[in-house]
Each structure stands twice: as C-alpha cells, then as structure tokens.
Amino acid sequence: MPTNLPVEAQKALARYQLARSIPEKIKALEEALSLIPDHKGTEKLRGQLKRRIAELKKEAERKAVTKTGRRDFFTISKEGDSQVVIIGSTNSGKSSLLRALTNARPVVAPYPFSTDKPTPGMMYYDDVEIQLVELPAILTDELEETQYTSKSLGLVKNSDGVIILLDCLNNPVTQLERILQLLDEAGISIKPKKGDILLEKKDSGGIRIVAFGNFHGTYREVEELLRNVGIRNAVVKIYGEASIEDLEEAIIRETVYKKTLIVLNKIDAAEPSELNKLKNIMEDLQIPYTFISAEKKENLEKLKERIFRTLGLIRVYTQKDGVVSRKPIVMRENATVRELAERIHKDLARNIRYARVWGRSVKIQGQQVGPDHVLRDLDIVEVYAG
Question: What is the pLDDT of residue 69?
Fold first, then answer.
C-alpha cells in the first residue's frame, strides 16, 4: 500500500473497517477510491479497491434475490471435532454422498433442488467425529447461479473445510471453473498457502506482531499499512511464511482460507479427456482430490481418510497414572503440549512443568518434554503441573 495517502482517504478506509453492512462497505470504498490520486504508485491499491467494490456489489445482488420474509433455515450449529461442508451443482450426488458417509437420511431424488436447506450428518473416522453438511446447490445443471448460492457460500465461510463435489457427467471442467470463480468472488481462498495471517483488533496497546514463522516485512511497514486503513491498535499473528502483501490482501479483500478436497463423483462414467484436464487444473492449484462413486459406494473408506488428512488434524490421547484415555483430543497439526494443557484445563496450562510423551514426536518413548514440544498424530501424553 502506498505511503502518505490523503487524510480523507485514510478516514474512508477506516470507515470501511468499521462498516457492518454491505452498502456501508461499498460507500466507504467508493469514497476512498475517489480520494486516492490515480498514478503508478497507487495503481495496485486502486485495483484492489475496485475489485472489492465489484465483489461486494455482486454479493448484494445475490442477497437481494434470495431475501425472503421466511424463517432462516441456513443456520447449522457446529458439532463434533470439525465441520466440513459439501458444495456442488444440482444432481451432483451431494445427498447420496452424505447418506453414504453419515447417519443422515437426506432426500435423494433425480430432480434438481431436492435439498433446499443445509442438511447435517456425522461421519466417524478412527475416533474422530466430523460433521458433514450438505449445502443446497450453488449451480444449476446449466452451471448458472441458484437462489441458494449466496447463503450456501456464507456457510462455506464459517466451516472448517470444504468438499467440492463434481458431477463427471456434466462438463466437470467448466463446473470446477465456475465454482472456483464463485468462491473467489465471495472472498474464499482454497489454494494452499505457505502461511496465514490473523488480525485481532484491540481497543488499546498499539500494534503488536507475533510471528510463528517467517514474515517478509518490517514493523514499520505493518504499522504504516494499518494506520492507512484506520487501525491503531491490533495484534497481527503470523503463521508460516507470509508477506506484507498477504496482510494487505487480508485487510482489503477480507479473504478467508478454507482447506478443500475436490471429489469427482460418477467416475465410472467420466470421459478420459475430461479427467486429464481436471487433473491438470487440480495439480496446478495444488488442491488434493480423489475419485468416487457415491451411488455404488466405491472408494468411500479412502475418502474418509482423505477428508481427515485434508483438515490437518491430529489425535492426541491423554494419560493419567498409566491409564490412557479412550477418546482422543482432536487438535490442529503442529499443536504443542501447552495447547493440549489449555484444552484440558486452564489451571493445568498455567501451572504446567513438563510432559511425558509416547509416540512419533519423540525419539525415546516416555520422553520428558517441555510445554512448547510439538505433538504428532496418535501421541500419548501425560502432563505434569506443579
């Protein structure tokens, strides 16, 4: 972001940060755009603002089409260890897949829009409970947006992960391209990133940077960027590899990243040429994918494992006085002993001294480790406090 933006432009960007409704956000961004001089130094920022305005206007149009006075059934409480939503076009096999993987019994019908509200079910995989939610179709058979597109994409944003289900009988390459376009317009990124940035706005304390990896930028650049958009107090948490451009993207576009698995359904009827094109696209995007037949229940056990691996979860079993817990605590990859202690009890985390670990994260079984020791899947841990 260019330095020394006009004061009035900074104020407009600050109003954008505070805005809650789409019209308020559009108004603030349009005002900021009109106040930022048009020259080479501001070209990138002006382009970002124009793109964000276009995205917000499209989102407003979708919401206007779907707005009704009826009760909103598009609210699903998260249950289990993680929530994964299933999106796709009409008749892509979402209901059949949900039936095959969970205890849910959705309507499976040959006509479009048999699913008109989110339908949850619980999938069990090796002591892990993963809530799968079938969302109403975001594309018609003709691959146009549906009346449910906006609300379904809203639930994608709140989920822990996404399954993109492609119908191999209905131009799957174009299907995938349209779904990727819709996700991008909604501010949802699915391409794996080397790092992630979490911005926590505060009431006081100035700007603080907490890096759990490598940040390619300086404190001054971060402070200047945040000041330009009206943020004076915040904690910027950086995980993995990230740059000042990534922070700028997160602030202006409000992009959220979702772990994604692409699933090709009705694979037995797919055209080889279409499959080759799909493989090239998915490999370029570096997004994991797999093939199934939901109706014939082929490759479903492998799919369960792929869903678990895509979410980046680990299972940690606790031990006390030599007795190992029957159910694991499910955590994100690279979780530490300290984070495990926090999940058990805040007092335990506060008073932790060390832990003993059995599993792949240690060289010697029963090894004593400190609070910052990184755990791995299926580790057994006994925490000691004092």
Answer: 46
Residue range 194-219: mean pLDDT, rounded = 85
Name, in order, each residue with C-beta under 8 angstroms of 372's C-beta and a sequence gap of 6 or more: 336, 337, 338
| The predicted structure's pLDDT at residue 376 | 97
Q: Which amino acid is present at 90? A: T
Q: Answer with the residue of higher pLDDT: 341 or 247.
A: 341
H helix count then E strand count, the chain = 12, 17
Residue 91: DSSP 8-state: T
Place of tokens 């006075």: 69
Contacts of 345 (CB under 8 A, 6+ apart): none
Q: What is the rounded average pLDDT for all residues in the chain?
A: 89
| Overall fold of domain 82-190+258-311 | Rossmann fold (3.40.50)
CA-to-CA dists, residue 171 to 87, 92, 315, angstroms: 16, 11, 39
Angle between helix 94-101 and helix 300-311 axes, rounded to 10 deg? 90
DSSP state of 369: E
Amino acid in the structure at residue 251: I
Three-class secondary structure of residue 31 per DSSP: helix
- The helix (run of H) or strand (run of E) holding residue 113 is none
* Helix orientation angle between 172-185 and 149-158, rounded to the nearest 10 degrees: 70
Tokens encoding 329: 């605590």
Measured CA distances, 173 to 62, 146, 187, 206, 279 (Å): 24, 19, 21, 48, 10
Type of residue found at 154: G
Q: Where are the domains of the chain?
A: 1-67, 82-190+258-311, 193-252, 313-385
| Nearest-angstrom CA–CA distance, 206 and 187 | 28
How far is residue 192's CA from residue 133's CA, in Å, rounded to a whole number? 22
Separation CA 316–CA 337 (nearest Å)? 10
Of the candidates 238, 229, 228, the one whose C-alpha atom is nearest the C-alpha of residue 208 is 238
Which of the four CATH numbers 2.60.220, 1.10.10, 1.20.58, 2.30.30 does domain 1-67 have?
1.20.58
Pick the residue with more confidence: 249 or 311? 311
